[in-house]
Write a structure and sequence with these properties.
Largest sheet of chain A: 7 strands, mixed
Strand order of the largest sheet of chain A: 3-4-5-9-8-7-6
Number of strands of chain B: 0
Structural class of chain B: little secondary structure
Shape of chain A: globular
Radius of gyration of chain A: 19 Å
Strand content of chain A: 35-45%
Order of helices and strands of chain B: H
Structural class of chain A: alpha+beta
Number of strands of chain A: 18
Shape of chain B: rod-shaped
CATH architecture of the largest domain in chain A: Alpha-Beta Complex
Oligomer: heterodimer
Distance between the termini of chain B: 90 Å
Chain lengths: 275, 59
Amino acid sequence: MPAIFGVARSTTATYEVAIDIGGMPIRVRTASRPFRRMLEARYAGFVNRSCPEPLFELEVDLVPPGRVAGGGDVRVRQESGRWSIERGDFRAEWEPALRRGWVRQSPNPHSIDSTLRIVHTLLLALEGGFLVHAASAVRDGRAVLFVGPSGAGKTTIARLAPENVTLLTDEISYVRLAKEYRAFGTPFTGELGRPGANSSAPIEALYVLEKDRGNRLEPMRVADGVRALLANILFFAQDPDLVTRVFQSACEFVARVPVYRLGFVPDATVWELIR
Amino acid sequence: MKTNKPSSPERPDPSNQPVAKKPYQKPAFRYQRVFETMALSCGKIDPTQGQCQFNTKNS
């Protein structure tokens, strides 16, 4: 019988969905059939129906709407090998050693979505990758990332993509490092409201978006590239070791992948500048 | 014979000038946000608001 939030509880979840993002499948278990349906719809292209061995299981304990945890800000901490993740609308715990996690939230899609995003930031930090606030797309077998804060033009660039471009996401890009850096599609969508393709490709370049009066492309200095990348990497944990790793990952990424400043007007011609 | 060399008003001899101490200024810390912490589902509004909980189109 697992202990969650300091209280021993029995497992009642009967429905499950394996959500496989970035090749890291997580099985979500719930006692609610409507909640499972919501998960299947929201993560449609990322549901793995033949997933015998997920990375871990996440059991969702649904409670009536209202404040679940203390503060409105996200807090992510680790103590004795157990991660604690909380925001006003949810509280989660995750024990990597047990390959189990638990979430207490109301039956809404945003709490579980945020939990998944945060858990993936932790998984990726351990292996040299990261989630980044960027649109990404694949053309001719190579991926390009368009990084920038809200309003920078991620969704605009995604909307302007030519037909031979496969969109991986217009909001949150998934970056993993093996022999080379690869971008994976995610269901984390922005204003486009359309999940990315569940595929991946080696990363060709990173573009830092900047709305301008014309289209222009210029290489960025390494230090500027690292700064721009760091400011858009999603990371929440108060954990010095992992923060150091994410810093190193950003430096390594910029050392290997060319970074450009892309000034653009919202017009399809911007894609002519993209290699 | 002792000669007093008048100091020129245009070019004061720095060695004869009393050094005016600058008042101590506490070093300022420059704060710069490092990571993105808002790009969560409903990260920009109070997540306990009904608007966030029930609008499935929010990113």
